[in-house]
Write the structure tokens for this entry.
Amino acid sequence: MQDSQTIEIYLSRLASAQENYRRTAAAVGADKISCAEELEAFVKGLGKEAAFDIYISDEKHECPSADEIKEVFLRLAEEQNIKVNVTEDEFLNLVDSGSRLTEDSKPRSLVHRDGDLHPAVHVWIIKRRDMGVYVLLQKRADMKDTDPGCYDVSVAGHLSQGDEFRSAAVRETAEELGVKIHGSQLRHIGNLNSHTVTNGVDDNEYVAVYIYREPVDEEGITLQQDEVSEVCWAEVDELLAVMDDEDFPNCIDVRELVMIKKAVF
């Protein structure tokens, strides 16, 4: 968790000025702040011992309030010698205790620090052949923070703030494999909670699971090198038989393979 003397402020480029000032006021402990002048006056009153971590979402979207608030803190850092760090990060929407997608968003790095429940999508590319069901596996790149070099679901990814599950599945399939699909071609086969802690990453996900059954031009697959090192096909029953084999490093959730079998047979 954050240092007790460091105040974290989240500025979303997709939020209104009112929302960015409201969240900033709540973070610094003010009843209400509605403009840069009020913010500057309040922060000066906190004294030089205060320290701030400012997180700004990474969308290429003009947001005067986010820049205005950031500039207040940077100016005070120079004039008052207040400690200020500014970080640009992807923001993720959060999921509530009822498994509902909320409008609350938080920097991805802090979501993975604090174990906040957040949305994700998994897409399984499948095909029928010789009476069996085959799934396309991706092998995670060696540079990944979590489960490097392990076999995994065909496509996986988070929902950025303001996104929705099906559009995220379409986008991630194009980004990771270079395969362009339409949302109507995806079949939703279920949701599940997945919570793992690896190398300091507390990944607490609410996952929407899809299958894609249309033919895939394997020659046209283009891997996102920093995410995926290779892909291969595996028959579902054979895959289930070797899941616990240490010679087959994987981070596949067996519950998803069961979902696939139920959906196909």
